[in-house]
Structures are given as structure tokens and as C-alpha cells.
Amino acid sequence: MSVHANSDDSWHGVVSSDSQFQPEKGRYHFYIGLFCPFAHRANLVRHIKGLESIIDISIVKPYPKGDDKGWPGWQFPSSPDEYEGATEDQLFKSKYLHEVYFKDDPDYKGRYSVPVLWDKKLNRMVNNESAELLRWLPTAFDSILDSNAPGRDIDLYPESLRSTIDEINVWMQRDLNSGVYKAGFAPTQEAYDNNVPTVFAALNKLEQLIYKNGGPYVLGKDMTEVDLRAYATIIRFDVVHIKENYTKSHYDINPRAITPLGPFPHIEDGVDLDFGKLKPGSIRHPAVLSRQKELYGSSEEIPSHM
């Protein structure tokens, strides 16, 4: 596959010993946004595999958003203190992310999204597809990791589970990862009412899988890329998809961006975080159970622990 076939195409490069993008410490740079679950996938791999000293990073602000292609935002802060959690463009001091895209392809016509993996040596973009990065990044730098590095032996796409992971990824992307946006950005009440049950049906399906496989991860005792896909969406369920994103994205409905109180940033201080004590459950609203049966062929409930 071409790295970047034309100005309408994304970038599809792979870091590997047999490609033009060789695994080298300090050669690559990530552009992400902490608000974005798709960029979060890549950053989770960066941390889980211990690549922080190998791949450095720049972080865009969540606002302004720009149009449906991200024009002119995403934007970098003009100083390190302007926006908490965001950074200046550490490579080019760009104001907008689209400037980084144009450094590789001045005629680019696609979306200006995160994540972006940039090659500082060749001065070009490697990849901006989160699903592709999630697939190959976990093993891309194993050859230069220390033999005793904590993340070296983590395999997020084990051969024995690949067909199962591929199957789950299809419906999880459609019904949960994208489903929260189909509901949150629904243009009508009818569309919203139709999309919400799909999201909760997917959550029920995940809960069933964890219960069936014995946890603590979706497919059992070992973490896979399925868990990263699920986590990056679910961790934002209240704080972003409901509290932050929804209230600030519907100007005609909520022009003052009035936001309900909570959830609180330090709520975990009063919560027992031993998740092994939690009992599995499900959303049992009739519309959700009906959608679950429609999508997955079953609305089987997890046995009650009450």
C-alpha cells in the first residue's frame, strides 16, 4: 500500500525494519489531542509499551474545532501556559495542525485529524490512521527496547485471538466508538432516539464478553487492542460525550453551553477502586435489549448477583 496515494488519501506508513521508516529512538513525533479517543489509542500504546523516550509528542487544544475537516483548527497554544494539557508544536511552532499536514502535502484535501505520527528524519508524515497505528505500533520498536523493558512482552494482537479481535473490532467501531458520535451529534430527536440504544447494546455486549471470559479484560486475563478501543471511548462517556462535548456542540439548542455539575475531577478519592469487587450487570431497557438482539443475535442477560 502506498504511504499517501493522493491528496484525498490518508497516510498509511508503517515503522518496521523492512520499510523506509526504520525503528529509531528520537526519530518520530506524535501529534495528539487529549480530548480525542482515537488519538488516545495511540498514546495508550506509547505509554503501555514504554515508548515515551522513543517518540516525543505535541498536543493540540480541544477548541476551536473548525469545520467538518478541522479547518482551521485544531490549534496549538501560543505558549506553554495558555491551555492546560496542550503544548506548543514542538517541531515547527505551527499555529494550526493543518500546517503540519501541508508540510507533507500542500494540496491535501482530507480531514486534519489526530493522531499523526511524523518522521523527523525524512520530514514527512508516517501515519494518521488510529486503527492502523493501534495494530502495528505495539511491536514496531521492540527491536530497540531494552530486553527487560516492562512493556516489551506485551502483545495486544496475539495470534491465538486475532480472528476474535477482528470480529469484535467491526461492531465495536460501528456501535460504540462511532456510536457515541452518531447519538451525540444526531441532528434530530428521532435520530438521537434511534442511535442511543445501539450504544448501550454495545456496552451490554462488552459486559457479557468480560463475564464470559472471566475478566479482568474483555477477552480474559490478557490485555488486547480491544481493551484500548473500549477504554478510550468509555473513559470519556460522562466527562466528554455528555458533560463536555454535548453541551458545547449544539449551539442552536444550548447557546450558553450550560453544563450540568459533575462528574467531579477527583471523585475517585471517595471510591473503592478494587474493581474485582464489582459485579457485572447490564442496561435492561426494552429498547436496548431489542437493539442488542437485532445487532448481535442475542439479548441474553448476565445472571443477577443481587
Outline of this structure?
34% of the residues lie in helices and 7% in strands.
The total count of strands amounts to 4
Low-confidence stretches: 262-268
Q: What general form does the structure show?
A: globular
Distance between the termini: 53 Å
Largest β-sheet summary: 4 strands, mixed
Structural class per helix/strand content? Answer: alpha+beta
What is Rg?
Answer: 20 Å
Order of H and E elements: EHEHEEHHHHHHH
Examine the secondary-structure arrangement and name the CATH architecture of the largest domain: Up-down Bundle
Average residue-wise pLDDT: 87
Descriptive tags:
2 domains; 9 helices; single chain; 4-stranded mixed sheet; 306 residues; Glutaredoxin; alpha+beta; Glutathione S-transferase Yfyf (Class Pi), Chain A, domain 2; 4 strands
Describe this structure in words.
There is one protein chain. This protein folds into 2 domains: 28-144, Glutaredoxin, CATH 3.40.30; 159-296, Up-down Bundle (Glutathione S-transferase Yfyf (Class Pi), Chain A, domain 2). Helix 1 packs parallel to helix 3 (130-140) and helix 1 crosses helix 7. The chain has a 4-stranded mixed beta sheet, sandwiched between helices. The model is unreliable at 262-268 (pLDDT under 50). 34% of the residues lie in helices and 7% in strands. It is an alpha+beta fold and 306 residues long. It contains 9 helices and 4 strands; from the N terminus they run βαβαββααααααα.
